[in-house]
Request: fold
Amino acid sequence: MESSVGTPITADGLIDSFCADKLNVYVYDSRPRMGAAAAAVVAGEIGGLIEARGRAVGIFASAPSQNEFLAALVEAPSIDWSRVVGFHLDEYLGMDERAPQSFRRFLIDRLVSKVAMSEFHGLWGETEDGATESERYSELLAANPPDFAVLGIGENGHLAFIDPPFCDFNDPQRVKVVELDGVCRAQQVNDGAFATIDDVPRNALSLTIPTIMARPRLFAIVPGPAKREAIKSTIEGPVATTCPASILRRHPDAHLFIDRDSASLLSRR
Reply:
């Protein structure tokens, strides 16, 4: 099956594909096959950008939902990582990179340390001045406009750390300090990152929805039964700030990779 990104969508394990408004959706029978398929498409995107323009600039997500994808991506033989610049979506405010919960650490361990990436720009959660760090990262993004973003979707439908109570589809900022809602903080416990909800930071640094939507291509990777409600809202609910990820249906070139479990509540299933 051909995708609009020009790289064939892997048929191995593909059990359904359809469009939700403008959003391209691919359903796989397992997490490993979903991750491998997404990695093949993103690797093709990176290769095409390098061939056309000499380099590729991407934003990557940090979450257990990305594990299969990242494991496959670092094994892709065709990527010249010396021509790739990386950013990421979000980071806990006050989080040291050495902490296992650090999102910057997550990507260093699973991607950056395994490939010879030209540059990786991390959000400095250690800062005591979130506004200044937001401005610094905004300037880096402006100087190196990303070509694509790889995303997850939270249990509450968030993109990056933009939770429903605080979502603004027209936010004028590129990066900002955000408050995390209770569902988001509980998810971090469910993911095994923290022992209790009281251990989860209440604030984070996050790219905003307009910053994400400005990327020419988006790839969302969302497996697992814990995401089934969020996927149903993303695909079948209204496009509204009550489910930030629903805005993906308005992007002209967005691709959502899900598995049987995360797709289980969809009407077409």
